[in-house]
Design goal:
The protein is an all-alpha fold. The protein has one helix and no strands.
Length: 186
């Protein structure tokens, strides 16, 4: 009977030992579970934060892309305008080149005409100079002729005077002859 008691006591002791061990294991597991739960909560929060951050980033990127696309559209329009302007300028340049070559040709022709006109002027000056010399000679001759005419007029005047005197004289002589004849007849 004592031996049985001792056996029971031993069993109780064993059970108590096992219960302590189980309680310790339970406490350890609880602690581990609590730690894991905390970790899970932290990770969940981290994931949530990351997702929010990713969403924000995505939104920012979407806005950025939208803005860049708008800017791109603007730049495309600007490029098209610049290309149009360039095309217009090229056309204008071609037109100006054509006009310039036309003007150059006209200038060349005018220069040729001018050179010819200068030559003609030279010839005309020479002719005028010759004519002036001839005119001077003719004027000299004319003034000489004028002198001759004046002299001839004087001589003519003198001859007319002489002629008149002569006629008068002849008339007087005729009168005298008449008178003498008359006297003779008497």
């Amino acid at each position: 009977s004592k031996q049985r008691l001792t056996g029971q006591q031993q069993e109780i002791n064993n059970l108590i030992q096992r219960k302590i061990a189980v309680d310790e294991e339970n406490a350890r597991l609880k602690n581990e579970f609590s730690n894991l739960n905390q970790k899970f909560k932290d990770k969940s929060q981290e994931l949530k934060d990351t997702e929010e951050c990713a969403q924000n980033k995505e939104e920012q990127n979407r806005l950025l892309i939208k803005n860049l696309e708008e800017e791109n559209k603007g730049l495309n329009t600007c490029c098209a305008d610049l290309l149009n302007d360039l095309e217009k300028l090229r056309k204008q340049e071609a037109q100006w080149k054509t006009e310039k070559s036309g003007n150059d040709a006209r200038i060349k022709n005018l220069e040729t005409d001018l050179a010819e006109a200068r030559e003609q002027m030279k010839e005309l000056r020479s002719i005028c100079s010759n004519l002036s010399s001839q005119v001077a000679v003719k004027q000299e001759e004319l003034s000489q002729k004028d002198c001759d005419v004046i002299r001839a007029r004087k001589e003519l005047q003198e001859m007319q005077n002489l002629y008149r005197q002569n006629i008068k004289h002849t008339a007087q002589q005729a009168e005298l002859i008449k008178q003498l004849q008359a006297l003779n007849t008497d």
